[in-house]
Write a structure and sequence with these properties.
By secondary structure, this protein is an alpha+beta fold. The protein has four helices and seven strands; from the N terminus they run E-E-E-E-H-E-E-E-H-H-H. The strands form two sheets. It has a four-stranded antiparallel beta sheet with strand order 3-2-4-5. The chain has a three-stranded mixed beta sheet with strand order 1-6-7, with helices on one face. The two termini are about 30 Å apart.
């Protein structure tokens, strides 16, 4: 289910290298609910579901990039709820272990990268002798360790999942 101004037709695509191929389309009802029936021939992997126009295009009534979600298909049912205007930040996985792991990883990765980005530039504002300089450097190193430990925990707890293999490849 996708809330917000969802397009009536929702598209399912897959990735093969840089190529994206539309596999199927379904009609969403007025509540934003839709359902794809995954065919036997669909292999485990990341699939893209195009939901509708991004917020900027909705506001200016222009065509442009669709907002979409990427889900993992690994022969399990996937049920989710999200908002079209912010699909990643609002994603709630209702059923699918693979996707719960995947989206938890994506949100953690986003948050961690935002913190790295901020911490990376802060030391330039302080002399090396300043207490804040060393505190920022220490926090940066601790954040790296925390992120590494998070990935190790994912690998340990879910070693055979497709989601962890993706997380490992991204990190």
């Amino acid at each position: 289910t996708a809330n917000g101004k969802i397009d009536k037709t929702v598209y399912l695509s897959n990735y093969s290298g840089d190529k994206i191929t539309v596999l199927d389309s379904v009609q969403a009802n007025q509540n934003g609910e839709f359902q794809f029936k995954m065919q036997q021939k669909y292999k485990p992997g990341i699939y893209k579901i195009a939901l509708g126009k991004c917020l900027k295009d909705q506001f200016y009534n222009t065509s442009g990039e669709d907002n979409f979600v990427k889900i993992i298909y690994n022969y399990e049912n996937v049920e989710f709820r999200t908002w079209v205007v912010a699909p990643l930040d609002s994603m709630r996985i209702i059923s699918s272990v693979e996707n719960k792991i995947y989206f938890e990883f994506l949100l953690n990765d986003k948050k961690t990268n935002e913190q790295f980005e901020i911490l990376q530039h802060l030391p330039t504002f302080f002399p090396k002798t300043d207490e804040l300089y060393s505190s920022i450097k220490k926090r940066y190193a601790n954040l790296q360790k925390e992120n590494q430990n998070y990935l190790i925990t994912l690998l340990k707890n879910y070693p055979k999942t497709y989601a962890v293999h993706i997380a490992k490849a991204i990190s």
